[in-house]
Known about the structure:
There is one protein chain. This protein has helices spanning 80-98, 112-121, 155-168, 197-210, 221-230, 243-251, 261-264, 273-282, 286-309, 322-335, 340-346, 349-354; strands spanning 5-13, 22-30, 33-38, 50-53, 58-61, 63-68, 100-105, 129-131, 136-139, 150-153, 173-177, 213-218, 234-237, 255-257, 372-375, 389-394, 397-401, 408-411. The protein is of the alpha/beta class and 413 residues long. It has 2 domains: 5-61 and 362-411, Urease, subunit C, domain 1, CATH 2.30.40.10; 63-354, Alpha-Beta Barrel (TIM Barrel), CATH 3.20.20. The two termini are 12 Å apart.
Amino acid sequence: MTHDRLVLTNANVIDCVGEQPIAGGSVVIERGRIAEVLDGSHSADTRNADVMDLGGAYLLPGLWDVHIHPDYLAETGASVVDQTIVFGQRLMEALTEAGVVGVRCAGSAHFMDVAWKRAFDTGQYVGPRVFAAGHFLTSTGGHFLTSGHALECDGPYGFVRAIREQIKNGVDHVKLNLTGGIMGPSWDRHWQSFLLDEELEAAFAICRARGFRVMAHAANPDAVKMAVRLGAHSVEHGYIMDHECVERLRASDTWYVPTLAISHLTPDQASDPWEKRWVEQRNLSADLCERADLASGEHREWFRRALAAGVRMALGSDIRPLKEAALLELGLWVKDGATPRQALLAATRDAAELCGVGAELGTIQPGKLADLIVVDDDPLRDITNLRRLRLVFKEGRLVSDRRSGAIGRRKDP
């Protein structure tokens, strides 16, 4: 493309603002930002512009995944360099193969997420927008130590010092594991809280003082309520909650990221070919599958109650590979009772808002950055249509073209 203007025409535009797609719509992009969004009754000015006829395909904001990790390679003996390279490859694949334009990390060793954030931001490589956490912080004998991304801390000052180290190394937010989880050894259980009150108070206090948001892994009711009371920016998982949890979340500014994939993707629960193939490749141990199966019913119930109550929610997967993770999680949201539109908003508008960039991204509106994707068919009719990706734009630049030849392009003088 040769011009600073790009006009995408003949599209069904899902702007993630209105309820229905804009039929026959056009989107004008100038210098990486959306300049105009037109319906079928108006024609865009195509002079001195590159023009792409989308042939009736669906144009929408790029997807987000607000709970990711690098692959768990430490126990394989992979070096830090190798782990970092693989993480970058996975991030770039997420953008080009799934249309994931933004991710929020929930813990990565050696500040790999900070490194790739800087590489993408400076244009050294083309990848999604990365919001970095550095290590996730837990107690000695805390949650998911086998991941390789945990940092064990003890006592109030132990957490304060670790948080200061994270800040010094360039993180965007701080991830605290308040409880155990589904994936872990026998003593790592999601109904158990791991941190003492004084440890939590100190950790949240230093984050408030330094202006850093807390991403709180909280999987039981007491931990969820503590996280909300202390001002967590988000609660992750919420496998077990109660009515007071839902009410406190609804009445607060705290987001809820349910990560349904952790409890839902097992051999006994996988229901479509994508899920079944992913479960087979994951090859989770029988013990962990049993733990997930036992947790899934309650997890599903509290997800539905939070959704019905109007809790602010965004989509995060907590699984890998990143090129499949958000797409699988979207399917699980709908399977658990969300409408396709609710799921899509959670992965676009609401995810960008959670990451603090809702004014710039997440919807197709004039003035916003043109991080956009094109798919063949309507995801508001069937959310799995998002798996048929054709084009990805980052700030108006075409970064992935998976067309079969049905979509045309021309250049106007």
